[in-house]
Amino acid sequence: MSDIATAFVDFAGEWIVSGAALADDEGLETAIVLSLFTDRRANADDELPGALNQRRGWWGDSFADVPGDRIGSRLWLLAREKQVPVVLQRAKEYAQEALQWLIEDGIARQVTVQAEVVRTGVLGLAIEIVRPRVPVARFRFEAFWKGA
Q1: What is the DSSP letter of 53?
Q2: How many other CB atoms are found less than 10 A from the CB of residue 10?
Q3: Do residues 12 and 50 lie in contact, with contact meaning Cβ atoms separated by under 8 Å?
Q4: Are the C-beta atoms of residues 63 and 55 closer than 8 Å to each other?
Q5: From CA 127, how far away is CA 7, in angstroms rounded?
Q6: DSSP letter string over 64-96?
Q7: Which helix (H) or strand (E) holds 130?
Q8: What global pTM score does this model have?
Q9: Distance from CA of residue 82 to its chain's centroid?
Q10: Do 41 and 69 touch, CB atoms closer than 8 A?
Q11: Which element (helix H / strand E) includes 102?
């Protein structure tokens, strides 16, 4: 089964075109991009950014095959946070949480995440996926951070 190839380009998800059609992705990149950069619903105890106090999330989570299963990550909660070590730790935890399904579904044996400030205003995520009988997959993403 393949997905429409989606890449993280210029701080946004972008479909990849191949000739006159959309490209397919037989690997993990699209799944990882959607897992990390789709807004997961905030937990009840999460501090919400902005004045609107919206918990966001994907409507499809209401119809999950596994009760309580949620798509996306809570990285969006950090968009206006300061670039300090405790926030980097939360970014790592949120990314790890978003990719945990790879282990639960038997796609990966291990998922490792590292978070760093690449430069002022940019959060870097280095992802390593260890799968059975397949070479280790490595991905690197940079996301814009609004609260410098």
Answers
A1: -
A2: 8
A3: no
A4: no
A5: 15
A6: -SSTT---SBSGGGGTTS-S-HHHHHHHHHHHH
A7: strand 122-131
A8: 0.80
A9: 19
A10: no
A11: helix 85-104
